[in-house]
Amino acid sequence: MFDTTLRDGEQSPGCSLRPAQKLVMARALAELGVDVIETGFPASSASDMEATRLIAAEIQRPSLCALSRCAPGDIEAAAKALEKARRPRIHVFISTSPLHREHKLGLSRQQVLERAIEGVRLARRYVEDVEFSAEDALRTEEDFLVEVFSEAIAAGARTINVPDTVGYTTPEEIRGLFQRLIAGVRGAGQAVFSAHCHDDLGLAVANSLAAIEGGARQVECTINGIGERAGNAALEEIVMALKVRGARYGTGTGIDTRALLPASRLLSRLTGMTVQRNKAVVGANAFAHEAGIHQHGMLRNRNTYEIMRPEDVGWPASQMVLGRHSGRHAVNDRLRALGFVLEEFEFERVFAAFKKLCDHQRLVRDADLQVLVTGDPDAA
Ligand code: KIV
Ligand code: ZN
Question: Please, what is the Cα angle at 167 between 165 and 170, to 5 degrees?
Answer without folding.
Answer: 125
